[in-house]
Amino acid sequence: MQYSFGLIGCGNMGSAIAQAVSQTCQDGILTNRSPQRAEQLAQQLGMTAGDNETAAKNSRYLFLGVKPHLMAGLLAELRPALAARQEPPVLVSMAAGLTIAQIQQMAGQEYPVIRIMPNTPVAVGQGVVLYQCSEQVDQDTKEGFLQLMQKSGQLFPIQESLMDVGAAVSGCDQLFGNVRCRRILHPQSTHRVLIDHAHNAVFDVALFCRTGKPDAFFAVFIILQVRLAGGGCNVEIKALH
Predict the structure, then answer these.
(1) What pLDDT digit, counting tens, does each position of 230-241 carry?
(2) Among 163, 230, 224, residue whose Cα is nearest residue 198
(3) Among candidates 48, 1, 43, 52, which has minimal Cα distance to 28?
(4) Is 151 helix (H, G, I), strand (E, B) or coil?
(5) Is the dihedral of CA 124, 126, 128, 134 positive or negative?
(6) Which residues contact 199 (CB under 8 A, 6 or more apart)?
(7) Is 73 within 8 Å of 65 (Cβ atoms)?
(8) Mean pLDDT, residues 187-203 taken together
(9) pLDDT value at position 88?
(10) What is the spatial distance between Cα 88 and Cα 153, in angstroms, rounded to a whole number?
(11) What is the spatial distance between Cα 236 and Cα 217, in angstroms, rounded to a whole number?
């Protein structure tokens, strides 16, 4: 395979992923609706700029960095290129609200799919990346993905049913700041323990999601902070509730 890493869509999140991956991988190809953006980022990271078809045909791990409402159109466009490959691609989707099964249906086959929910701090190696693999992803493929993403921050496997919950929290950049400011401004607060727990949970969302029975006060605190900071889309907020 010509490229270990392919990225379609160099928006804020896609660019952050590319910056993290570039620390361990240089054989990457970047594409974007605006070619100039892909070319600029590729030059910065030492990768190659190209088009969607080339990326789809020649990338081992093909990251799909487009908005959820654009995913069906993109994958319909890529179907011939994906089907013509001798080795199936590993599709890595970061589209909120779209399940693994939906990605496979849009792509036309049950390709190996890794669904991820990252946040922008991955660009500086301080992100939280939640992920779930389809049953077509074997152990070697999973390890290759983890190696590719090793400089992004903390990676946690999570049940797909909890992906939207985690996204509502980990995707809320302002929540990080709110929690830190409260600790600085109110170091002797009676809710210090709560604030500490919230701080830890933001950077280890998977543990929060796995508890099953989080403290009610803590859960309400997180929900309110996410709402006030505008984090998460509607489907993620609903799942968080």
Answers:
(1) 444 455 445 555
(2) 224
(3) 48
(4) coil
(5) positive
(6) 179, 180, 183
(7) no
(8) 44
(9) 95
(10) 28
(11) 20
Which residues are CB-neighbours of 125 under 8 A, at least 6 positions away?
Answer: 20, 23, 151, 152, 153
**Quick one: tokens of 150?**
């090793």
Strand, coil or helix: 110: coil
Q: Would you state the structure tokens that stand for residue 12, as one six-digit string? A: 């804020």
Judge whether residue 173 has pLDDT over 90: no
Q: Are strands 59-64 and 3-8 parallel, antiparallel or unpaired?
A: parallel
Cβ neighbours of residue 14 under 8 Å, at least 6 residues apart? 7, 8, 32, 63, 65, 94
How far from the centroid of its chain's Cα atoms is residue 207's Cα?
17
How far is 177 from 93, CA to CA, in rounded Å? 27
The letter for the amino acid at 187 is P
What would the two tokens of residue 124 be? 């500086």
| pLDDT digits 0-9 by tens, 103-146 | 999 999 999 999 999 887 788 887 888 999 999 999 999 999 99
Question: Average of pLDDT values for 7-16?
Answer: 94
pLDDT band per the 50, 70, 90 thresholds, residue 191:
very low
Residues 84-114: tens digit of each pLDDT: 999 999 999 999 889 999 999 999 999 999 9
Asked if 14 and 63 count as a contact pair (C-beta separation under 8 A), the reply is yes
pLDDT tens, residue by residue, 38-55: 999 999 999 999 999 999
Q: Closest Cα to residue 28, out of 65, 55, 64, 52?
A: 55
127-133/113-117 β-pairing: antiparallel
Q: Which residues lie below 8 Å from residue 100, measured CB to CB, with a gap of 6+?
A: 93, 113, 115, 132, 134, 160
